[in-house]
Amino acid sequence: MAKFLINNNGPLYGEVQISGAKNAVLPLMAATILTGEKCKIREVPKLLDVRVMQDILDFLGAEIKADGAGALDIEMKELTTREVPFALANQMRASFLVMGPLLAREGYAKVYLPGGCTIGARPIELHLKGFEALGAEIVLKEKYVEAKVGPEGLKGASIYLDFPSVGATENIMMAAVLADGITYIENAAEEPEIVDLANFLNRMGASIKGAGTDNIKIEGVKKLKGTEHTVIPDRIETGTFMLAGAITRGEVLIKNIVPDHVRPIAAKLRECGVIVEVVDEGLYVNGGQNKLISTDIKTLPYPGFPTDIQSPFMAFLTTVEGSGTVIETVFENRFMHVAELNRMGANITTEGNRAIVQGGKQLVGAHVAATDLRAGAALVLAGLAAKGTTEVFDIYHIERGYENFAEKFRNLGADIVRVDD
Ligand code: UD1
Q: I want to staple 266 with a disulfide (CB 3.0 to 4.6 A). Which of 34, 65, 276, 299 is the partner?
């Protein structure tokens, strides 16, 4: 099992290049199932989760070629199976995103229930509600879901999501693009990754309007074709490096970013006294100029403060003067990093979905475990600011979603190495 060894090396300085977004590339890869023609996806980050999606597509019959420069060619001429087995589905929650495209193309899918981070129940009933509304017959067993469509195929429908789930919006959108008639997804998720997927699907020949708003209109088409697409930059990786600049009181230029996508993170950092400026080359973050103070955050669906940046932001709040409240409203069990941060000298108490962070602490190095992907990133950030050596275990969680994590930090002057035990 690999771990990161981190020593405080003072403020981070320099430039960092952001990779393609994990949460955008996974649905894009699933969407290639919708055509028999070749799709080229550029700026694909090298991540464990991308590897898993590649394995799933490969298992379904795709031919996949990597060009070594970050592009993947995916061609699903014919499917060899319409089933995703437990061993693949269990590796990440996003495996369930193949259900919508499989149903649309084949009229049948059997997918074992997804795994992924242990940050709450993460049910799938909204995905299934959408498929059912489109005319699929769903059989939900303890371990898998089977969905079938009659010979008449999927039919457009109006679907209201009780919560703007990112995955459900994507899955339903992908199922609806080949349906007969018009589908409306109301209270849809508005995340930039949804817009990226809609742009990709539209380039394949779909007719989707309103992606990025809470009401998406999809006019079904008969057939989709192959296309080329460049993945949007990862806004969560961007936020993580913004916080790296802030927590080490450093000065970082973050390149390949979309400023709009990180607006809530920038706003909250500015409230704390961190300088965040959009410049020609990217985003300039300076945490060493002003005295930093605490603030409160509340996670919400986009364009609210992202739940994926809650734990990295909390790590930062432990280091600034004053007390801040962190409220998590998207996931029910996303405070597992609190115990680990407290082991590093933080003073955080929780009650339900609310955490109070008493800041101004000098963190100290400790042995800590990454309990999920973003919690792992938070611990690495804490390690960069802590006195002494921090060892972060279970870093496979981190490698699911961050490309060349240690290397990018080293380029900024951090003392961090990946050690294979
Ligand atoms: C995606 C992101 C993840 C991010 C999350 C919220 C990917 C691959 N992952 O996950 O990084 O943290 O959005 O921004 O894009 N829910 C239900 N029923 C459902 C579906 C979801 O109750 O059928 C609930 C979940 O339990 C959770 C909340 O909705 O509490 C948000 O989940 P969702 O938006 O679906 O997140 P994911 O798509 O899994």
A: 276
